[in-house]
Design brief:
The structure is a homodimer.
Chain A lengths: L7 H24 L5 H8 L3 H7 L3 H21 L7 H27 L4 H24 L9 H21 L6 H14 L10
Helix pairs in contact in A: 1-2, 1-4, 1-5, 4-5, 4-6, 5-6, 5-7, 5-8, 6-7, 7-8
Chain lengths: 200, 200
């Protein structure tokens, strides 16, 4: 969290620096959990002294970056109408927020190394809850399979989101192809199954 | 790779140490990419000197552990008959090798930090190829959807395998529930889709 609160133009400058630092931290930490404060300062285009002025510890910076990302995700998610047909709602949710959700997953891993588990759970509970609620509603309405727990289905979506973000970074898929691919396989995986007697 | 090759009983002892070290390295590095040589020696129940005697560098140890894991995976995979009905073959493949494949994914990330990309690709090409070939055959026979590239479908399975292994470690799912869950959502995601006009 910012340590100093100057007034007027200086406050606006400081706010701008903080934004740049947090964006750089999200980008660096999503790619490499162990990104250093120096690497983040370089990516943000600010000096180390400026960065340490706002975030005296790496731990504080990681926590602020995670909170910033989850807040942005919450803004995007809360702007969506997820009350319509569940499959269509899920498709919209994936399309509008796949990258944010994927980055949150990567950021969470970075955060797990420095923050206490309770704090991480607290920060992450909002967006996760929203996805889970949509799945539960879809199951209740018969739009999604209910032979598997909603928590597991939500978890599988997270794994695919996170892994696909890595595939986009490695060039195996483009950022334009990713959300449609994720939606297609997720909706197929979530679809009510004709029979449960498929076990060997 | 072992540096010394003593004879007789000492050779058997050395081989046993190497096995213990490699198993410990796989376990530690799958959980934590940055596991140190000291942590691995502790987990293996051997002294640091013994470990360094077999693996003078952490890099060499990581490479040997990855090769050992992939070799074990190759043994399991080559023992399977994957020439039958594609969905059933995929189910068997997941059931018999999900943990090995998941560990390989985690190990690969550890390896990516220390080994050159070409060497990793070389070590990993075998098992990956087998999964991909099964998907391609399933697509050709109409058992799996062909509206998405086989490489992407294989990749999504890898993400779910890796993520589910983490869920098992965190206690969200048991090791007994995991392979059946993975098979159920993967087979649903891979199933031929009734219509491609599902886009928004």
């Amino acid at each position: 969290m910012p340590r100093s609160t100057p007034s007027g133009a200086r406050r606006a400058d400081a706010q701008h620096s903080v934004e740049k630092i947090l964006d750089a931290a999200i980008d660096c930490l999503s790619r490499n959990h162990d990104a250093s404060v120096v690497q983040i300062a370089q990516a943000a285009g600010v000096g180390r002294v400026t960065l340490y002025g706002h975030f005296p510890s790496r731990e504080g910076l990681v926590e602020a970056a995670l909170a910033h990302l989850l807040e942005r995700g919450e803004e995007v998610l809360s702007g969506l109408d997820l009350t319509g047909e569940p499959a269509q709602s899920l498709r919209e949710l994936i399309g509008s927020s796949w990258l944010l959700i994927a980055q949150s997953g990567a950021m969470l891993e970075a955060a797990q190394k420095v923050l206490p588990p309770g704090r991480i759970h607290e920060l992450h509970a909002g967006p996760e809850q929203r996805v889970r609620e949509l799945i539960v509603r879809g199951q209740a309405q018969g739009a999604f399979r209910d032979d598997l727990p909603a928590a597991w289905l939500a978890s599988a979506l997270h794994h695919v989101l996170k892994g696909t973000a890595a595939d986009v970074r490695s060039g195996a898929m483009t950022a334009e192809q990713a959300p449609e691919f994720i939606a297609q396989i997720t909706l197929a995986a979530y679809a009510p199954q004709p029979s449960c007697s498929h076990r060997p």
